[in-house]
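Entry 14. Ran structure prediction on the chain below.
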Amino acid sequence: MDLFEADYVCKYHRDRITVTERNEDIRFHQQVKAVARSTKFVGKVAEGPKVLRDVYEEWGNLRLTVANRILRENPDVILNRCPQCGSLARSPRAQQCRTYFFDWHKEPFTRA
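Output, structure tokens:
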């Protein structure tokens, strides 16, 4: 699973994220804001990007862990993939591929 798929699972299945995981996500957002503020106003330019990279890497690992847990514990969670190329659709209800624009709607839309 890559980070894009992990974000998809975390975004569209928020109800399955635990309180602890949600609090960790909030903490990461607060850290990013704090680092951005300190580098902007104090002038710690050399230190800022490295700290941000570390925070984002840790946040990405958290997202992957949460998404893997959600998929493992909930077999009813289905990732909406394009039947033609297998790429992830934009949302669970989408019926058009975001990569190659393949359309899998049941019947064409017509105006009466």
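The radius of gyration is 19 Å. Will compare against last week's run tomorrow.
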